[in-house]
Amino acid sequence: MQRLRHCSVFARLPFTVAQSSRQLKKPVPLVSACSGFGSVRWGSSGTDQHYHNSSRRFRFRYALTGLIAGTGAVLAYGLHHSKAEQASASVTEPLSLPIYSQEEVTKHRSLENGVWVTYNGNVYDITEFVAVHPGGAKILLAAGGALEPFWALYAVHKQDHVLEILGEYQVGVLRAEDRVKAAADPADPYSTDPPRHPALSVNSQKPFNAEPPPALLTDSYITPSALFFKRNHLPVPLVDPKTYRLIIEGLPGGPASLTLDDLKSRFPKHTVTATLQCAGNRRAEMNKVKRVKGLNWGISAISNAKWSGARLTDVLHHYGFGPDVASTARHVRFEGLDSDVTGTAYGASIPLNKAVGEDGDVLLAYEMNGEDLPRDHGFPVRVVVPGVVGARNVKWLGRIVVSSEESQSHWQQNDYKGFSPGTDWDTVDFKSAPAIQELPIQSAITNLADGSSVDRDTEDLTVRGYAWSGGGREVVRVDVSLDGGKTWHVAELQNCEKGEEPAPTPSPGRSWAWKLWEITVPLPEGEEELEVVCKAVDSGYNTQPDSIPPIWNLRGVLSNAWHRVKVKVK
Ligand code: MTE
User: Fold this and answer.
1) Which of 427, 453, 486 is the last residue in one of the domains?
2) CA of 444 to the centre of ligand 1 (A)
3) I need a surface site. Which of 27, 477, 538, 569 has the fewest CB within 10 A?
4) Read out DSSP for 417-448?
């Protein structure tokens, strides 16, 4: 996630007041204020301290407005108030920031002339920041204009610390008429995103990232598509199924191009029940131990669905995959049809043996739970890689490349990797760690919320949740404790909808779906608080670590410690 990387580096930049003052000592053009805000002249000499203080005041106001500017109504409210504040500031603060026209800002679009941008009606000179921007020269795309359309794509920028650092570069404010125009203009790349279920708990609106409430998550064995967690890095692309083409490269005979109909009619349809889990599931618990970078997922960035489509191995063999290719190729790369402002598509890869192995069960899925894939989940085609981290299950699949190299995408190379608890943003070397593929054993309690209470008169307590392991390893046991792990009970496992006949046990190494579990135990007498804990064991006898600190990592991935919930007895 490029955006997150930006933020993390933003957060790491050792900005100090001294540095920001040094930066502000640069000569700032003398500017005449206009449009009803009073006349302001601004120069660099001798006024740094005042400038800095003033800048902080302004920054605080506009950062606040920026943070709440989510809907048109709120934005309008924010602008109205900013304008009112700005107008009053011009009366009470004669030495406030200079006011620039959009025309003036537009002149600053290169390193030679300075790189200026606007955000939420403020003007920033980010010339010196360009060299340290983790996304490199991409930032120049915004030069001379507004950051809003770019931050709408990389919405994770909209965080307090990013705004605070941006504030250090503020050189002025945009004049009133240009502020209004800028607010009305930015095209919203998310405007064609699909409608979503209101029950979802939203972690980020743009791009859309949301999870179902834990209590709903395990109401059914198959998660209804509307409630299935949604993890998008970019706007949801609008794909016309009639003109859709899937390109396959790296096989003898050159690139092949398939229509949706080809995929559906030329290859047998297979259905696989598989759980997808985001690498960041349960990141919120890691965040409580020590802050990590990333969306603050609760315990529901995991869901289970029935996926139908063509097997990837059938398609690759049909287009010429054989021993010749296998002797040099090592990976199968996938590219989505969603792309950022530079046209860079989401991408990921999986090892070749997973892709072509008979037991890999990798699907080019066009159905989810018996219906066309919903737009949020990759319509018209996504790859489903059972047992592998969600990030490799590329949606809106546009291209497959059989290759000797891993995907070079940001998400394969510089994200979704695990590190030691001792690694920080100053020491991390993304090249030193492998991309996450199979995920470790996981379980969580879904029917009891931390801090909730149970009635003392209740005789029995029922605890319910999910358990799943990556790599096709079957969940063989879930242990539950009511006393923080001193004593344990074994829960009952369920691999189908409640009341249905249990599903046949999959062949070893092909358990792709979660198990739901439940246990009812007598409520211990005389306790005022219970620490309810669950931990699962898979067919490789892997179990979850008992606490987070030893597995803490700076990106908050692979968070699978015992799930602990404190419940009051009242
Ligand atoms: N594929 C594309 N093209 N774009 C994306 O942003 N997100 C990935 C993966 N595939 C993503 C993608 C991540 S990080 C996850 S966890 C899963 O999709 C989430 O799938 P879901 O939204 O269907 O739950």
Assistant:
1) 427
2) 22
3) 27
4) B---TT--TTT--GGGSPBP-BPPPEEEE-SS
pLDDT tops 80 at residue 182: no
Q: Which residues are catalytic?
A: 133, 157, 231, 278, 416
Phi, psi at residue 358, to the nearest 5°?
-55, -35
Closest-lying ligand 1 atom to the alpha carbon of residue 336 = 3
pTM of the full structure: 0.73
The verdict on 454 and 554 lying in the same domain is yes
User: Residue 544 Cα, ligand 1 centroid: separation in angstroms?
Assistant: 25
> 157-161, 197-201, 312-316: lowest mean pLDDT where?
157-161
Q: Say if CB 124 and CB 171 are below 8 A apart.
A: yes
β partners of residue 168: none
Instruction: Please give the number of the atom of ligand 1 that sits closest to the Cα of 278.
Output: 16
Report the domain count for the chain: 3
In this predicted model, what pLDDT tens digit does every residue of 258-282 receive, in sequence order? Answer: 999 999 999 999 999 999 999 999 9
Minimal-distance CA residue to ligand 1 atom 2: 395
Residue 63 has pLDDT above 60, yes or no: no
166 shares its domain with 17: yes
Q: Give the alpha-carbon dihedral of 499, 500, 505, 509, to 10 degrees.
A: -80
Each residue's pLDDT tens digit, 136-149: 666 777 888 888 76
Among the listed residues 254, 233, 377, the one whose alpha carbon sits nearest the alpha carbon of residue 307: 377
Q: Which of 138, 156, 179 is the last residue of a domain?
A: 179
Which residues have CB under 6 Å of ligand 1? 228-234, 276, 278, 336, 338, 346, 376-377, 390-391, 393-396
Cβ-based burial of 474 (10 A; exposed 0-12, middle 13-18, buried ≥19): buried
What residue's CA is closest to ligand 1, atom 17? 390
Q: At 509, which CATH number?
A: 2.60.40.650
Tell me the pLDDT tens digit for each residue of 442-472: 999 999 999 999 998 889 999 999 999 999 9
- Ligand 1 site-directed mutation target among 231, 333, 397, 514, most atoms within 8 Å of CB: 231
